[in-house]
Each structure stands twice: as C-alpha cells, then as structure tokens.
Amino acid sequence: MSTPQSHIFVIFGATGDLTHRKLLPALMKTMSGPAEAPACYIIGASGSDWSDEQFRAKAREWLSKKNYSDEAVRAWTDRHLFYTSLGRARDNYEGLKARIEALEAELGLPGNRVFYLSVPPRGYPAAIEALGRHGLNKSAGFTRLVIEKPFGRNLASARALNDLVHQYFDEDQVYRIDHYLGKESVQNLLAFRFANVLFESVWNRDRIERVEITVAESLGLGSRAGYYDKAGALRDMIQNHLTQLFTLIAMEVPSGFNAEAIRQEKIKVLRSVQPLDLDRDVVFGQYAAGQMNGEVVPGYLDEEGIDGISQTETFVAVRLHVENWRWQGVPFILRTGKRLPTRLTQIAVRFHGAPVSLFQTYAPKCDVTPNELVITLQPNEGFDLHFDVKTPGESFRLQTQQLRFRYEDAFGALPEAYETLLLDVITGDQTLFVHADEAEASWALYGPLIEHAHTVYPYPAGSWGPEEAHRLLEGWAVEA
Ligand code: BG6
Hints:
Blueprint: E1 7-12, H1 17-30, E2 40-46, H2 52-63, H3 70-80, E3 81-85, H4 93-107, E4 113-117, H5 124-133, E5 143-147, H6 155-168, E6 174-176, H7 184-194, H8 197-200, E7 208-216, H9 225-250, H10 259-272, H11 278-281, E8 282-288, E9 290-292, E10 295-297, E11 315-321, E12 331-337, E13 344-351, E14 372-378, E15 382-390, E16 398-406, H12 407-411, H13 417-427, H14 436-451, E17 456-460, H15 470-473
Parallel strand pairs: 1-2, 1-4, 2-3, 4-5, 5-6, 7-12, 8-17
Antiparallel strand pairs: 7-13, 8-11, 9-10, 11-12, 13-14, 14-15, 15-16
Helix pairs in contact: 1-13, 2-3, 5-6, 6-14, 9-10, 9-14, 10-14
Bound molecules: 6-O-phosphono-beta-D-glucopyranose.
C-alpha cells in the first residue's frame, strides 16, 4: 500500500484549469522517476477533439512555467501523456476503455487505474454512472475514483451522490478531495496535538476560552462567476475547508493513525455540534467596492458575470458550539471571506486568563494577558505562542512576547497540497480524504442555513467583513 505501483491515471476535464495549474505539475513532480521506477501514464479525457500530440503540446506549455528544463518536460510528456476524446456528448466510454486496455497491454501494466473527476460538479453523476456501466469500476489491479469538491450542494444532493457512487464503487475506492487536507501545515495539526503532551493536556474547556479559525483571501471572484455565484462562501469554503480545520482541532485522540480511526473522530465532532441558530450564530456578507493597496476595486455585484441583484455571500462568520465533555461552552468561530485585507489562514486558540492576578497592585501596566496559541497555516506557516514576561527594570511591568516557529526556517519550502494528495491516491492512503459520512455530517450541520432566507450585509472590499460579524468575533485582532 505504501509504495506507488505503475498505473493509468485518467483525468476527466483534461483541458481545464485544475489540470494545468495543479494536477500535471504535481504528477510530474511526484511521478517522474527513473525509467525503471513505477510510472504514471496519464490519459487526458474531455469533450475536445484533441490528439495525444496536441495534449502533450499544451502540457508542455503549462509545465514550462514550472522551473523544469525543456528536455525534462518533453521527455516526460512524450512518455507519459495520452489523450482520448469523449466526444461532444461526452459519452465515448467504450473508446476510453479500449484505449486504457490497449495501453495496459502495450506497456505491460498490471491494470491499476485512477479516475479523476476534474469536471464541473454537474458532470459527476454522468461520469460515475458511465464508468460503472462500462465496467470501469473494477479491473485486474486497483481502481480508484477521485472526486473534487464541492461534493453536493446540500444534504440531499450529497446523499444522492454518495448513493450513486456506492452503486458502483466501494467506499475504499473513493477519494473525495479537500485540498486543505493536503497542506503540510494542516497535517501538522495532528502531529502538533498528538505528539506533544504539553498542548494536549490543556486542550479542553478548562483551559481554552475560544477558538477562532480564519481563512481570509484578498482576491475577489476572478473569472469564476458561473460557479461561485451558485455556491457562495458557505458552500465554497466553510462546509469543507474550514470545517476540516475545525474537526482536526476539536477531535478526540484517534485509536490509531489510520484513515478509519481519524475519520471516525472527525465525524463524532461534527455530530456533537449543536444545531446552528441563524439569528445568533451566523453572519453573511458580500463585498462592495472598496480600496485595496491604494486602488479602488469593484464590488461583487459589478464583477463580470454577476447579476446586479445577486444575494450570494462572499463572507461568512459562524459560531459553533460543541456539546461534548471536552468542549462544552467553548465557542469555535469560523470565518472566511473574499476581498479581505490580506491572504491568511490562521487558527487562534485563546486560553483563559490566570484565575487570580498577583500583580494587581502594579495595575494598569501589569494587567495579565491570556495566553494565545496562533497557528498560521498560510502564508509563513508556523506558530506563535503568546505569553507574558516581566519587562526588565525596577517597576513591575508585564509585556506579551512570543515563542515563534516557522516551517520555512526549519525545513525550507513546503510541498504543494496536490503533490501530497495525488501520491496518497496512488499509494492507496485515504487518511487525507473525506469519507461519505463526513461529507453528509457536514451538510447536515450547515444545510438549514442555506435553506432559510437570510440577510447578506455589505462590507467594503479591503475591510475585515461586515460590522455585524464583530458581534461573533468580539475583540479579535488579526495577526499578519
Ligand atoms: C477553493 C475555493 O477550494 O479554495 C476558492 O473554491 C478558494 O474559492 C480556494 O479561493 C482557496 O484555496 P487556498 O489553497 O488558496 O487557500
């Protein structure tokens, strides 16, 4: 299970953005070893009528931006890339099957296959069904199905999609992607919590006052109006990425370091969250025109492709209450938004203040500040532990200082999330992928928010979201 075996990797949606930005660079990086090493043979599949050579030429164009020599790119694409058109109706699965079988025979491959759905979500059901009906759900070796997010639009559609998947594939063949789980800094949350007795022993309601999870983006919509306006920030970010971070922070110690044990604990956390109260626990926002880096940027409603009356949210803050022995009474605040002042993914764990201050006679200069652990997941991955020290000198004053760790100082640049995730798919490790039950538990939590009418408050681009969100976030300050 832990070393790659030679296989065929079919990318549906091979002409799309994800293929050239993430998938091909990650596959070239992780699977371009010496000729005798296990190899990844990629078949691009999509509606476009391309030849192998056209796909290779496009791939060379894409990969040339990635610091490889022209010879290395040419050698890799010539040897590893193939293309099969699914036709305009995207139904040429017999052609695809014949191509896979022919390549397996020609290259002497053992029948290991990965199918990667990098197509718009509305295309998932047809592709899954077609794979099943054409017998491509099993083979002489392994067959694995990779599904990009978003997995469903609500609980009912996620369930329907899971049912369809399970009609043809066993759960252990299925890899639901949440690319946040591939980030080193996110995986490190497990090491941080479960390899360090120091933190685990204070990781509970007795010591922690609240936890704030922020994924801030300075970018706006870009060219994704078609997808984003139907999704919104709750579906696009909260239901998946931020909820993954939340479960990793809140879960109990798993019984082992394996996919099943970890997923079970994550699901338990989700099921312990109290139903959300739309009026009390959630604030939605949408960016209006504003100033960023000295320039005026347009509001969401003026972005290309957006209807001027859209109520889609580009910002969400939500407060979760976990009803279990570890966390009862500790609010978890999740917030994300586009067109915020900076790009920052951060988890701030705020500890209770000291129960009694010894230094009150010296107030106000020696008010005790509660300890805080700030885990920065991107950029500048690392963490800071904030604690009080006495400032040198005669009078007694306190000042908050930080213990600081940065990944880059210790290890240099981190690998891309997709490199980790694709290698895991190829080696058959499901730990960093979302289980069917987990996807459903998350939708069960947020579904009611999506279904009820709610106010969407405007906020100026370049600000930290609508004023109304501050009532959830009281007193919180961001650290860049
Ligand atoms: C994607 C969302 O899943 O994650 C995007 O669809 C978002 O809207 C992106 O910009 C953020 O990812 P990262 O890795 O840049 O934080």
